[in-house]
Specification:
The chain has 179 residues and is of the alpha/beta class. The protein contains 8 helices and 8 strands, in the order H-E-E-H-H-E-H-E-E-E-H-E-H-E-H-H. The strands form 2 sheets. A 6-stranded mixed β-sheet has the order 5-4-3-6-7-8, sandwiched between helices. The chain has a two-stranded antiparallel ribbon with strand order 1-2. It is globular and about 45 Å long. The two termini are 26 Å apart.
Length: 179
C-alpha cells in the first residue's frame, strides 16, 4: 500500500540514501533509510502519525519501540488522541528500572509502532517485553519494511505487521532518485 506522499517526503528529507551501508544486524546494503532524518522532519512525522492514526481503533494504546518508535508513538498519540507506552531495549539501572515505561494495565491491547523493519528482531523483542508486562500484542505498524525477512519473523511471533511503505515501493524508481 504505497503512499507516494510519504515516499516523496522521505526523499525530500534525504532519508533515503544510496551507497554501501552496514546495517544493525551486521549485513550490508546498497541503500539506507535514515530514521533519524525522517523522524526529525515535521512533514514526514506528520504524514506517518496521520497514517498510523488512521489505522487505529478509538480505544487503542500504542507501544513505541525505543529509540526509533518513540517519536512515532508520541506523534501518533497526539494525532489519534490515544495513550502510549515505551518498550525499552534493556532495563535501566536506576529509578524504577522498568522495561516498559508509561501506564500499562494487565491484558491491555497494544499496537506496536516501529520505524524500519529489517530482520524484525527489535520489534519482536519489544512485543515479548510488552507481553511479559501483561499486554496483549497482535498488531504492529511500521514505516518501512525492508523486505529482508522481518515480516516473517514478526508474524512468527503472532503479530500482524502493516508497513506504510515497502523497500520495493521506496526503490521503485531508484534510477531517477539515484542519479
Amino acid at each position: 500500500m504505497a503512499n507516494q506522499n510519504l515516499i516523496d517526503a522521505l526523499r525530500a528529507a534525504d532519508a533515503v540514501r544510496f551507497g554501501e551501508f552496514e546495517l544493525s544486524h551486521g549485513g550490508t546494503s546498497d541503500y539506507y533509510v535514515d530514521k533519524y532524518l525522517f523522524e526529525t522532519d515535521p512533514r514526514c512525522l506528520e504524514l506517518i502519525a496521520d497514517a498510523f492514526a488512521d489505522r487505529l481503533e478509538a480505544d487503542a494504546k500504542l507501544g513505541g519501540v525505543a529509540l526509533g518508535g518513540v517519536p512515532l508513538a508520541a506523534a501518533t498519540s497526539v494525532a489519534a488522541g490515544v495513550p502510549y507506552v515505551i518498550a525499552r531495549k534493556q532495563r535501566k539501572d536506576y529509578g524504577t528500572a522498568n522495561l516498559i515505561e508509561g501506564r500499562l494495565e494487565d491484558g491491555e491491547d497494544v499496537v506496536v509502532v516501529e520505524d524500519i523493519v529489517t530482520t524484525g528482531t527489535s520489534l519482536v523483542d519489544a512485543v515479548e517485553a510488552l507481553r511479559d508486562a501483561g499486554a496483549t500484542v497482535e498488531r504492529a505498524l511500521v514505516v518501512v519494511d525492508r523486505q529482508e525477512g522481518g515480516r516473517e519473523n514478526v508474524e512468527a511471533a503472532g503479530v500482524e505487521m502493516e508497513a506504510l511503505v515497502t523497500a520495493e515501493e521506496l526503490l521503485a524508481d531508484r534510477d531517477r532518485t539515484d542519479a
